[in-house]
């Protein structure tokens, strides 16, 4: 619902449909807007990725930060964690259908960011 500012006959302003709780955009940004979260989702778009490979792809992120974000995404149902029964034991991460649903938004954000040469 969109908020609107109206002025009454005495010049007083009143907001109609004010956001009393986080709006849908804020809720979405809380989920995918954390540092490195969008990049993690984007790098998982094609196939399951092992943790260390993901850490290499995200060169500027610490392993602690990546681990924290992956746990958050797993708890929210966006990422599936799988233990691979090989030697050495490895863990892979892949997107769920819910996680994949964010890819279109992230792709648009990537294009917008590149077209405006954002730093």
UniProtKB/TrEMBL annotation:
<keyword id="KW-0805">Transcription regulation</keyword>
<keyword id="KW-0804">Transcription</keyword>
<feature type="domain" description="HTH hxlR-type">
    <location>
        <begin position="23"/>
        <end position="119"/>
    </location>
</feature>
<protein>
    <submittedName>
        <fullName>Transcriptional regulator</fullName>
    </submittedName>
</protein>
<dbReference type="InterPro" id="IPR036388">
    <property type="entry name" value="WH-like_DNA-bd_sf"/>
</dbReference>
<dbReference type="InterPro" id="IPR036390">
    <property type="entry name" value="WH_DNA-bd_sf"/>
</dbReference>
<keyword id="KW-0238">DNA-binding</keyword>
<dbReference type="Pfam" id="PF01638">
    <property type="entry name" value="HxlR"/>
</dbReference>
<dbReference type="GO" id="GO:0003677">
    <property type="term" value="F:DNA binding"/>
</dbReference>
<dbReference type="InterPro" id="IPR002577">
    <property type="entry name" value="HTH_HxlR"/>
</dbReference>
